[in-house]
Amino acid sequence: xxxxxxxxxxxxxxxxxxxxxxxxxxxxxxxxxxxxxxxxxxxxxxxxxxxxxxxxxxxxxxxxxxxxxxxxxxxxxxxxxxxxxxxxxxxxxxxxxxxxxxxxxxxxxxxxxxxxxxxxxxxxxxxxxxxxxxxxxxxxxxxxxxxxxxxxxxxxxxxxxxxxxxxxxxxxxxxxxxxxxxxxxxxxxxxxxxxxxxxxxxxxxxxxxxxxxxxxxxxxxxxxxxxxxxxxxxxxxxxxxxxxxxxxxxxxxxxxxxxxxxxxxxxxxxxxxxxxxxxxxxxxxxxxxxxxxxxxxxxxxxxxxxxxxxxxxxxxxxxxxxxxxxxxxxxxxx
Length: 334
What we know:
With 334 residues, this protein is mainly alpha-helical. The chain has helices at 21-31, 55-64, 66-75, 89-95, 100-116, 177-185, 196-213, 220-234, 238-249, 268-282, 284-294, 301-308, 311-330, and strands at residues 9-15, 40-48, 76-83, 87-88, 120-121, 130-132, 143-145, 152-153. Mean pLDDT is 81; it is low at 49-53.
């Protein structure tokens, strides 16, 4: 870290027994060579959550709920982390909209390597958790996957470790359809394990969100339309949110009706290319026969879904999107 370099601080409240963000990322970045992860300069987990409360508040809480307060004292820790300075995704895409496809490409690499090389699932891919490095030395832009507060380690069989691994994780507008449906059916006891395919689907929703929420200087009518659209992804009951997403994913037929801003309209082929993968995996109940035809009768549902949305297929979809965009550009279609 340079003496004149700015370094942001992050304060995270986590279960005391949970592996720290610094440990997760350093192991993945250094030992396993996982790309596009943040550089962490320092971290400290000697603070406790409740030590930050005023004495009067702490005393009152201990009187009202002594058992729960004592448990929190023992099980919650506050970690202070010092990062290299990264900038929000929105700033970069506002200047260079076409780099959205590069972002999806790089984050796909990061998520794949995290899962299979470092045995880590991120579980909270979102618009604010993807940033970029303004000081990157090399060709092109360098996007970074940040915020590992909800990440979990996996064993050699791909099963998440630790009690908190069973808790539902993610940011609502970007959560996978399958997870939303499970939350609707089993709000207190999730039955669907969070898998890599769910993080890949979140990346799809981040791309769609970016095409509506990055550009600020737009007409008021378009702003209102975007607000109404986004509300369907983050308000109401979980089943309602899932249903609205499925309507858009229906082989991409609803995507061209999304209120994209002018600078991002030409990127529709990106979403169309990815949507088939996401839809087929998200609606396994409808596509089981077709998926099993390419898979194996001995694979379980999750394994078959994983074969339908994976790193290689996403890369193929991105290549297809680039071809479609070049064709549209050649024909003069904006």
